[in-house]
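Thread: sanity check for a docking pose with pyridoxal-5'-phosphate

Original post by kr_44:
Hi all, I'm comparing my docking run against an independent structure prediction. Below are the sequence and the ligand SMILES. Could someone generate the full complex and paste the structure tokens? I mainly care about where the ligand ends up relative to the chain.
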Amino acid sequence: MIPIAQPFLGTEEAEAASAAVLSGWLSQGPQVAAFEAEFAEYVGAAYACAVSNCTTALHLALLGLEIGPGDEVITVSHSFIASANAIRQCGGVPVFVDVAPGTYNIDPAEIARAITHRTRAILCVHQIGMPCDLAGVMAVARPLGIPVIEDAACAIGSEIRIDGQWVRIGVPVGDVACFSFHPRKVITTGEGGMLTTSDPELDRKFRLWRQHGMSVSDTKRHSSASVIFEDYPVQGYNYRMTDIQAAIGRQQLKRLPDILSRRRALAARYHALLADVEGITPPQEPEWARSNWQSYCVALDAGLDQVRIMQSMLDQGIATRRGIMCIHLEDAHADLPRRHPLWESERARDHSILLPLYAQMTDEVQDRVVAALRDAILSCRNLKQAVGEPA
Ligand SMILES: *Cc1c(COP(=O)(O)O)cnc(C)c1O
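Reply from moderator J.T.:
Ran it for you. Here is the predicted complex with pyridoxal-5'-phosphate included:
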């Protein structure tokens, strides 16, 4: 069976985790601090704050921007459900706008149409690692003073050209960027998240909130020569990353350049191999973006049945996934008003599939995926003819 994805870990990660366990310091401590410093340096951010996952990162980012009950946050429905869950956790109202055709990413023109006097933030997503049109988003947000959060859950190592300069996602261009280290992402710590920002005041708040609103961290108290007591100026959360996770993350960061170059080579190979396959459209990388190819999403022509194609691939031993979900179609958020058309989002969910892509994938395995896809498309067409459906 060829999987859809596979985390890339080795003995370096296992040994780093083991060393953290044997050090006697397991929760947030020196490994977390080192991981934060190395992550900030890698993406080019002034501050990086590690947390338990990207959903808690998004929650803190929204709290930092003072999102509260009734506040509207413009975002996409075409995303993982956590993007909307985090907004609602603050009492905020996600206002869904459509994605631009072909990009799977937020359409800045739709943001402009969705702004009301209750709009308090924009939460844009760099979907499946492909940078969204941040320059377009900022052009709408900045003149109105609306803060921007980047859901960069999948986008570690992706790059974008802003004002003629190539920068890594997470600098951040908006006010805060949030990353995930779930095993489905490009690097993993099992569970984990990171917030990056240029604002020292926001970073200070994130650090306070993530550990119970405690004024003095336990690492500080532990290493202090004199007795100090902590106090609790604000109500906080326990959103800490453990030192075991951070130790793994540091090794994953070292591996990241190799992971990225392999993923980009595989994506380029998919483009070439799929160029003459009729009925599908490979993903487009805008000339101002460099994806990390967290996922490789191909659009299916209207005549091709998504489930039939996926089943045929599965029968041939190859896992695929349907396109990104639509949050507005899930019962959990069915009570939200539908103010804006979401046709492109729905079309993308129902007429695209994700193909396997992971750093350990060999060319030979990739060739098998492409052959199976060709076969699936052919049998889908033949079946339609046999049952007399329009081609
Ligand atoms: C994976 C993902 C999340 C959630 O990340 P966790 O670390 O699992 O909480 C949020 N947003 C997007 C776009 C994602 O892909």
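The mean pLDDT is 96. Hope that helps with the comparison, let us know if your pose agrees.
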